[in-house]
Amino acid sequence: MSTLPSHSAVAAGDDQLAHAITHQPGQLKRTLKLRHLVFIGLAYLAPLAVFDMFGIVSEATSGHVPLAYLVVMIAVLFTAFSYSRMVRFFPIAGSAYTYVKEAINPHLGFLVGWAATLDYLLLPLLNAVLSAIYMGALLPEVPFWVWVVLTVGISTALNLVGVKLAASMNMILVGIQLVVALAFVIFTLVNIANGENGAAFSATPFFSGDIQPAAITAGAAILAVSFLGFDAVSTLAEEAERPTRDVPRAIFIIVIAAGAFFMTVTYVMQTLFPDVTELGNIVGASPTMAKYIGGAAFQAFFVGGYMMSVLGCGLTQQMSAARLLYAMGRDGALPKRLFGGVNARTGVPVANVLLVAVIALGALFIGLEQVTSMVNFGAFVAFAFVNLSVIFTFFKFLKRRGPGPWLAFVVVPAIGVAINVWLWFSLDGLSMIVGGIWAAIGLVYLVIKTRGFRSPAPDLTGPINIGMYE
Q: Which domain of life does this protein belong to (predicted)?
């Protein structure tokens, strides 16, 4: 049943009506204020993600990482605008899956939700790759596979005993990341001021005569992973005190703050090293640069702070992915016998935790650029369909047809669709193959499950909201 309120109530920002529509006995409590939503979103983004892809994108864009970040931030802002429209109409947990389900079609909503699950399943793998890269820069004599196995093993062991990260832990991790990033920026600025590597401030990282639009787009497509999670706050609509006001505001604050942070950090990095190949280690450019700007002691501090973030994120990501699979199995979206069971003593979905661990061990065989692109596959699909959902909402539910509604519900979302499709086609071939196979599996499963679309699509509301407060 649709939970769509009347447009007049939405236009008036009537949060009491939204509360009355969505709140019933046994449901989530509305306790989150704007500041809570913003901090949760920033914690989900992981500020130190700015260092992950610097070397690869710098090489791909010929020294224009800040420009690539500007492009992807603009793209994400169009999608953020669409999220802000949809959360006013559907102030309930669910995000992209819910919006497509309600505004377009439940079966299509399932497929979009299915595509989005690829992000959850691959993020622990991405985390293991990053862990091995950073620790390898600090201790190059230790083989890459050792760090992968250790990262996956520690996260798996902690998840199996039922460890839960408190919300306060997220705040501590974000604080540590900001301190590390600030120290990195200060050291870099000192080096630039001293003329190290012939560096001087200029607009070149944002604009130069040798810019190649295709390369910038490809770089932006990779960097989109840095913004994954900005939409996570939309899944908290049922727990926000004023969802139709605060969730849209939080989304925009998160995207703009993160974009400004990412561009600032990469600007000073790119200014000091316009040609990242000078560092020698392109994939591990950031820890190598940390040693250059502050010596071995600062490199150890930088990698240590980063690893605290990596382990925290890895634990949370594996926990989320495992519980996502459990929720899908429990609710019948996946075979219950395989995915819907938990350990009687710990309450942990052991089989799912181990399955996610096996997937994460794929870090032994897949490079950073490839896994990042694969994670972005599902994100671009979800983003494109959220924008499309706004257009469908306009024609299905909105009675007003003035210039304002046409601009907000058709023109802007249409641009968002075009941008996300453009970025989606900029992903590498392997990502398109893996993502295409995943989507095909979801389609075949949906056809079988619904007996050729004659039955309702499986419900994905549970898994999309999994992991935020586990």
A: Bacteria
- For residue 153, give both structure tokens: 């093993």
Let me know: does 176 contact 42? Beta carbons within 8 Å. Answer: no
Whether the CB-CB separation of 21 and 244 falls below 8 Å is answered with: no
Q: Is 23 contained in some domain?
A: no
Q: For 165-202, what is each residue's pLDDT tens digit?
A: 444 555 677 778 788 889 999 999 999 999 998 889 99
Q: Which of 253-257, 413-417, 459-463 has the lowest mean pLDDT?
A: 459-463
Q: What is the pTM of this model?
A: 0.79
CATH of the domain at 363: 1.20.1740.10
For residue 466, give the nearest of 381, 361, 356, 374 by alpha carbon.
Answer: 356
Q: What angle do CA 133, 128, 298 make, to 5 degrees?
A: 40
In a domain, 1, yes or no: no
Note whether residue 62 is domain-resident: yes
End-to-end Cα, the chain, rounded Å: 28
Tell me how many domains the chain contains. Answer: 1
- Which residues, in sequence order, are CB contacts of 111 under 8 Å at separation 6+? 439, 442, 443, 446
